[in-house]
Amino acid sequence: MKPEQKDIYTSLAPLYDTLMGDVDYESWADFIDEIMQTHHYDPQNILELACGTGALALSLAELECYSITATDLSASMIKIAQQKAAEFELNVDFFPMNYLDILIEKKFDCIYTVFDSVNYLKEKEEINTFLLNTYRILNPGGLLIYDFSTPKNSLESVDFLNNEEGVAGKYRYFRNSRYDAKERIHYNEFEIEELDQETGKVINSFREIHTQRAYSLHEMLSIVEQTPYHLVAKYAGFDLIDADENSARVTMVLKCQNLQ
Ligand SMILES: C[S@@+](CC[C@H](N)C(=O)[O-])C[C@H]1O[C@@H](n2cnc3c(N)ncnc32)[C@H](O)[C@@H]1O
What we know:
Blueprint: E1 4-5, H1 13-19, H2 25-39, E2 45-48, H3 55-61, E3 67-72, H4 75-88, E4 92-96, E5 108-113, H5 124-136, E6 138-149, H6 151-161, E7 164-168, E8 171-180, E9 185-195, E10 202-213, H7 217-225, E11 230-236, E12 249-255
Helix pairs in contact: 2-3
Bound molecules: S-adenosylmethionine.
């Protein structure tokens, strides 16, 4: 049976939490909380972009000090996030939204997005659009916090990610990962098989190809320079430590200077 090609994070959605089983979202939420509390005088209304199945937003919601809205392009990922919020009785307003086409009129004190979600933007102009769109819905003094993955991260992780396989509930998956260092594009191709629970036979098969662009710190800083944002900090890893060109993942903290 020829695998059906699906939009990204459609067939992968039911497997996503298993694939991310080793990710410590509670510590990641603590890191985002620390950044917000360090660089904003009183963060209250928070927006997460590209929230996936909501793990980080739900961890932040447990702190009970923020009003949280969380969005993602994939309706399948959002549906799982909504189910988890209901199951754990946590208050997060989840809905689907493309972060390049922000349709919210409300303004926020902090907007954040994590785990390389911005690397799905393969053109510098798209990052610029993303930055200007978020600026428009931040309160004066508000923060945009986002991480991105650098070429170093792709070079270090590609062998580890390639040929990964596993089982998640009624699904079996296989990942092929490759990095084009010249174009700085990282390809992750997932083959997903849905198995009949009784016979174990494959009843459906899907393919998703994810392409992400790795950005150097220098490239990202030159994009930010062309926006009205003020650069507050650039952190390496998950600590308040200044990033440099050797950092594998960088968390940017930008401030909206609009004072009206
Ligand atoms: C690597 S996952 C990270 C999800 C989540 N932030 C986490 O930490 O688990 C990348 C997410 O980016 C979302 N995404 C990709 N392009 C997007 C876009 N243009 N607008 C909103 N979300 C997008 C995908 O649907 C996916 O859920």
